[in-house]
User: Which sequence fits this backbone?
């Protein structure tokens, strides 16, 4: 999360509404020239990437994980589905310096964008040229805002198993070359409920909707408690994070469940929650002369006696911890409760790297059998837009 200025945003790199139809924070459109517009990831593949910064990275670094974002490819020159969050607005309020609705009902959430727009998402206007972003096994190189990127095929040539947690006969056999990844991603692409809006580059953006018609928001609290999103349940506008979307699609399509092997520990949780609060507070403190500089808020907004940075950190951390953007110490209660252990699916789990998941095969994901492959970009340039 990067504090930019009072009229811009608090950016989340890759947190609840009272009802499924609650008004969702409007998405922000970001445009740039995509220097490359095709990639080598086939339809049915997933891309796991590692950002060079942001609050999600801080959380996942705290539990020793690599990936920070998951995206699903609909083809080498077509569309990409993922879940992402609007960059919440900073506002002239001493008590609530970040717009609460932008956190509670963050959009666009689950959405599909063109591949050139996804390039803009990853790199802005940076020209990656012929550079290959490194995989986790071969080291990383920071370039264009990404510290690494790799893709996984969903078509296991060997026999495989999928695990549908809670079913009477949870193990389902899949013969080799079943292409479970394609089955899951195509199911999502064929999803009948969606809303659309255009951008200045005429890129269409599709926002997936839940069964009850409400947009599928970005639910930051799913990092702590994924509820039953991995079993295809989105009732109550609970939302998904990026790695929850392929898990949702895999279960719903019959391509196999995506299930963590165990919970994160209480110590994992404490490290992550503390790191998140400290990250937001530190970036706020570092805004010398900018939006959160103490003198600016005292002189221009009249915030004498307010800990603006502490309130900003509370708002963000509480959204992750209790699914409500509020000021106060609710996040500390969650942090200190030994009975609360996070249960979540991370990008590493989709890829089968997470020690909390099965390493490969059934019970992990349709893509976990594969070894991460380098993502390469090619193609012509295109002025494109995406929404966050």
Assistant:
């Amino acid at each position: 999360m990067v504090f930019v200025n009072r009229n811009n945003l608090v950016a989340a790199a890759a947190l609840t509404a009272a009802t499924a139809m609650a008004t969702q924070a409007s998405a922000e459109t970001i445009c740039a020239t995509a220097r490359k517009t095709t990639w080598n990831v086939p339809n049915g593949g997933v891309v796991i990437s590692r950002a060079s910064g942001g609050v999600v990275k801080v959380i996942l670094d705290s539990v020793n994980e690599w990936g920070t974002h998951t995206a699903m490819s609909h083809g080498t020159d077509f569309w990409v589905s993922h879940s992402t969050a609007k960059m919440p607005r900073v506002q002239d309020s001493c008590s609530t310096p970040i717009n609460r609705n932008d956190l509670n009902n963050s959009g666009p959430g689950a959405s599909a964008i063109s591949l050139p727009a996804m390039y803009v998402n990853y790199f802005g206007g940076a020209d990656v040229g012929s550079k290959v972003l490194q995989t986790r096994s071969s080291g990383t190189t920071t370039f264009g805002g990404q510290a690494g990127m790799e893709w996984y095929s969903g078509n296991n040539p060997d026999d495989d198993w999928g695990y549908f947690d809670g079913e009477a006969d949870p193990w389902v056999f899949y013969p080799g070359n079943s292409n479970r990844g394609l089955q899951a991603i195509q199911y999502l692409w064929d999803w009948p409920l969606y809303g659309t809006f255009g951008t200045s580059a005429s890129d269409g953006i599709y926002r997936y909707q839940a069964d009850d018609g409400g947009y599928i928001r970005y639910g930051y609290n799913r990092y702590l408690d994924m509820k039953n999103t991995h079993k295809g349940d989105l009732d109550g506008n609970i939302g998904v994070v990026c790695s929850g979307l392929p898990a949702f699609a895999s279960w719903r399509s019959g391509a196999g469940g995506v299930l963590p092997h165990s919970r994160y520990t209480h110590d994992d949780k404490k490290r992550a929650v503390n790191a998140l609060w400290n990250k937001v507070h530190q970036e706020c403190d570092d805004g010398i002369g900018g939006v959160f500089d103490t003198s600016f808020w005292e002189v221009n907004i009249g915030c004498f006696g307010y800990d603006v940075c502490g309130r900003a950190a509370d708002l963000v951390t509480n959204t992750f911890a209790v699914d409500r953007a509020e000021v106060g110490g609710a996040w500390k209660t969650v942090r200190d409760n030994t009975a609360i252990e996070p249960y979540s699916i991370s990008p590493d789990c989709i890829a089968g790297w997470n020690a909390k998941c099965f390493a490969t095969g059934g019970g992990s994901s349709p893509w976990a059998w594969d070894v991460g492959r380098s993502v390469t970009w090619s193609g012509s340039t295109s002025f494109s837009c995406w929404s966050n």
